Amino acid sequence: MSNSRLFARLLLQQNGVRNCYTASRKHLYIDKDTKVICQGFTGKQGTFHSQQAIDYGSRLVGGVSPGKGGRTHLGVPVFNSVKEAREGTGAEATVIYVPPPFAGAAIMEAIDAGMPLVVCITEGIPQQDMVKVKHKLLRQSTTRLIGPNCPGVINPGECKIGIMPGHIHKKGRIGIGGDPFNGTDFIDCLEVFLQDPKTEGIILIGEIGGNAEENAADYLKQHNSGTNAKPVVSFIAGLTAPPGRRMGHAGAIIAGGKGGAKEKIAALQQAGVVVSMSPAQLGSTMFKEFEKRKML
Amino acid sequence: MSAKAISEQTGKEFLYKHICTSAAVQNRFRYANVTSETDWDRLTQDHPWLLTERLVVKPDQLIKCRGKLGLVGVNLDLVGVQEWLKPRLMRETTVAKAKGILKNFLIEPFVAHTQEEEFYICIYATREGDHVLFHHEGGVDVGDVDAKAQRLLVGVDDKLSEDSVKEQLFMHVPEDKKEVLVSFVVGLFNLYEDLYFTYLEINPLVVNQNGVFVLDMAAKIDATADYICKAKWGDVEFPPPFGREAYPEEAYIADLDAKSGASLKLTILNPLGRIWTMVAGGGASVVYSDTICDLGGVDELANYGEYSGAPSEQQTYDYAKTILSLMTREKHHEGKVLIIGGSIANFTNVAATFKGIVRAIKDYQGPLKENGVTIFVRRGGPNYQEGLRVMGEVGKTTGIPIYVFGTETHMTAIVGMALGHQPIPNQPPVAAHTANFLLNSSTNSLQKPSSKEDPELPQLQRISSLAFK
């Protein structure tokens, strides 16, 4: 097959499957009725964070720990598999606290069980595992993955799936994770937030490495301009990291002119995003944007 | 995941040990490592071919384009190699903008060959799968490979077939070399997958009537796959980039990191610098480094690192003592600062981690005072008030100036204070409420918010024992 035909097929394939997976974006939205299960339920991390979730008010309806099905843990049933847990509880979301050697398989199991939302907290999953997960993920439209290596997603006062401290949150927030092969990127979140009537402003926090922020800037140029554009404020960490140095989450490296903080900031500014030079000023910057647009 | 570069020697070792191919791979294990400690008699005993063959010598320190930089000695005998090394071994050299010492060299047999026998191959990972690049004109002057090379994408879960290699990559390869090369390329790809490489480049790959010669190799492997590949990798070393030293303290922390579910990272940038950091979290650590550099501290920034994921008191002590030890080795006339920073911890028990740091401060109080160290602390998270309290106390009992701030102060405000750009405000009173749970019963005093009035705060609950299985 000639190179150009191969390239065309790849492009079609990518666009085609992209439409498939993007249909699952709506599952990013969680609320007080969302039923959640926990994979790795009876392990140390699973137990600790599940108790936190229950205390916060999340609807934790069960958990998965192979070989321990039938028991009760923290007051809810334990199942042997995600499929059984979903059948037994009607859960719509799962949170994974499984160590790296088994986390990839845990995500696959959740996809196979048709779980609408999967949040994977685990850090350190081998790249090859995640490439396979991503490959499967892109060819279906039921399951939405957040992570891996992320703190989770929270709808304050309603539902908390992940490790973030609940009491500090007043506005909606998703932590999508630092790994290069992740399930949900900025564009996925932006689409949900731009279309959600309750979301008035968006804060986007980025970091050196990769080009997710540049892609987000392109998306915003196309979908968030004009009079109805929502204010977007951003902070990019790693401005002073020189090329070749390994820093931050998952050891991001700036290589070959891509992935540097300056480039990201420029791209975002061209898309109408107000970039704050300090995380401390994100709140006040957003406030000024609201003032400018007379949204207060 | 963490794709890390390995040395040329390590890459070749993996290849010679584990590649499955019918192609005759020559000069297997024929490489000799040379440093300033090398005992040449011993070396020639272990590698007798050094005395009989013509040789090539070059540094093995993750340096690119060594040929163009004049860093390759070609077609020499052993005496010639030693002469070549004299002006280069342990000499400072600048490569791009990095200054470093040339200290690790590789000697291999010289393989005479023609341009027609040189090929280029590279395999690397992307989201869609693995790309295989191949060019029939390899060597030092290969030029822009992206533009010139033949390219083949092996999709996820797909295999590399001999037919697709021949059809898509070998358009310009002479017939008599196709079979040998195709077997080698497929074998190389399988090696790449089995050993969790993320990048593997051989330039030049020489193919002549005697077989296949791997004259050079640059590679990266996925360090998170250690638990899968340990048996094949052995104890693999990841060399630092050229221009940066590998410190035993970094190896020590990396070892602690590997043994724990928590994250402990340390990179030493400038051991003589006066600004040291001990920051919690990957995100916060990048932000603190940015801020320090923004405020003009880039030349004095001594280290980059982070600790997170709920390390124990002991682990935090081990981490802290490493930093305190490093920062008290050599005095600086302006004194030094230690920035113990962080945002609001997700779930790390700040009281526990800070007790570890305090213990280390107590152990190092002598050297800390001799080196004129001032400590700035900013932190939030579970039990942070207890953490801040013990920090403030150790300052009083040891006489070391320690300034302590909680979440009422912006995360990076202490950087301005530490660098003398901002006056240090009076220490704020400890805030009235904490996260809504107590972890270990490390303190007897219970801080109860008026949760009935404040709708943001869920009910305070005590977890005195959790059922861990």
SSE topology sketch:
The complex is a heterodimer of chains A (296) and B (469).
Chain A: H1 3-22, E1 35-39, H2 44-56, E2 59-64, E3 72-73, E4 76-79, H3 82-89, E5 93-96, H4 100-112, E6 117-120, H5 127-138, E7 144-146, E8 152-155, E9 159-162, E10 173-175, H6 186-195, E11 202-207, H7 212-223, E12 232-237, E13 246-247, E14 252-253, H8 261-270, E15 274-275, H9 282-292
Parallel strand pairs in A: 1-2, 1-5, 2-4, 5-6, 6-7, 11-12, 12-15
Antiparallel strand pairs in A: 3-4, 8-9, 8-10, 13-14
Chain B: E1 3-6, H1 8-18, E2 32-34, H2 40-46, H3 49-52, E3 55-59, E4 73-76, H4 78-85, E5 92-95, E6 98-101, E7 105-109, E8 118-125, E9 129-135, H5 145-148, E10 150-155, H6 162-169, H7 175-194, E11 197-208, E12 211-214, E13 218-222, H8 226-233, H9 248-258, E14 263-268, E15 275-280, H10 282-294, E16 303-308, H11 313-327, E17 336-342, H12 350-363, H13 365-370, E18 373-378, H14 384-398, E19 402-405, H15 413-418, E20 437-438, E21 461-462
Parallel strand pairs in B: 15-17, 17-18, 18-19, 20-21
Antiparallel strand pairs in B: 1-13, 2-7, 3-4, 3-7, 5-6, 8-9, 8-11, 9-10, 11-12, 11-13, 14-16
Helix pairs in contact in B: 11-12, 12-14
